[in-house]
Amino acid sequence: MSDITIGNEHLDASWFLILAALLFIIGAIGILVRRNPLVILVCIELMLNAVNLTLVTFSRQLQNSEGQLFALMSITVAAAEAVVGLGILVDIFKDREVEDVDELSELRG
Amino acid sequence: MATFIFLVAAAFCIAGAVGIVLFRDAIRSVLSLVAVMLALSSLYLMLSAQFIFAVQVIVYSGAVMVLFLFVIALMGPVREQPSTRLRFQGLLAVIVAGSFAGLVVAMLGGVRYHAPDKGAVLSTFGSVESIAYGLFTTYLYPFELTSLLLLVAAVGAIYMSRRERP
Fold first, then answer.
1. Do residues A76 and B150 make contact, with C-beta atoms less than 8 angstroms apart?
2. Taking the model in full, what pTM does it have?
């Protein structure tokens, strides 16, 4: 039931899901390990892409195009997030050089 | 052939993702993300999501990545130094990521697949028409909200990048 027929071959949907899970976990590790704020944004984009792959996979497996619509919405939100995040970064970089996100702790309560 | 294409694209994805985490230069991380996105777009094409494929190539590997590269060009090259603040950050990251990976594996084991919807026509599946039909009927309201979101993001970015603020 989880077969996805491509051409005359059958691929299992779980392959795509495992790949998406791997990408998501690698993105999470990147966010935890890296300290350059720009690279952390890149890792967030990677995680969003992994989720998109899951949505498209289930859309294809269920043969229901709503998953693709959700993926489209998520791409839009990711683009808006990148614009705002990079805008904030550029604004901070105008004042000083930031090599470590831990330096951005002015708002700490 | 499909299996071969999947394996090649998956290898590119994983290699690019590992590259994002391991490269010390920000620009190499961003270019690795471009590789991941192009490989993912070929997977979308395999999953008969032609429109998502085009959007992925144009919006993600085109527009968003150019934005990232512009910011790096503004910042100048920044090499990440080994951490000085959180000494246990590496260990903590391994613990958190390991438990998170366990969670995801447990979740993958519990996936239950439902039978495909009846009546879906695979020859038009994922085409612009089928996407647009959903977007302009059932999901019209979220679609309009998306355009509002983009407007807010554009205005916010312009405001933040102004030199002097009122």
1. yes
2. 0.90
- Distance between start and end Cα atoms, chain A: 52
Instruction: Verify whether the Cβ–Cβ distance A23 to B17 is below 8 Å.
Output: yes
Of A61, A68, A90, the CB nearest to B116: A61
Give the number of residues written for chain A. 109
Chain-centre distance for alpha carbon B36: 8
CA distance A20 to A9: 21
Contacting B residues, span 147-166, partner chain A, CB-CB under 8 Å? 149-150, 152-154, 156-157, 160-161
Rounded-to-integer distance, Cα B109 and Cα B54, Å: 32
Q: Amino acid letter at B45? A: L
Q: What is the ipTM of this complex?
A: 0.89
DSSP, collapsed to helix, strand or coil, labels residue B25 as: strand
3-state helix/strand/coil string of B124-165: CCCCHHHHHHHHHCCCHHHHHHHHHHHHHHHHHHHHHCCCCC
CA end-to-end distance (rounded Å), chain B: 60
Q: Which of A83, A95, A105 to mutate to test the interface with B (most CBs of B within 10 A)?
A: A83
Q: Average pLDDT, stretch A11-32?
A: 91
Q: Which long-range contacts (CB under 8 A, 24 or more apart) does B79-84 make?
A: B79/B24, B79/B25, B80/A34, B80/A35, B80/A36, B80/A39, B80/A99, B80/B24, B80/B26, B81/A99, B83/A35, B83/A100
Mean pLDDT value across chain A: 87
pLDDT surpassing 80 at residue A61: yes
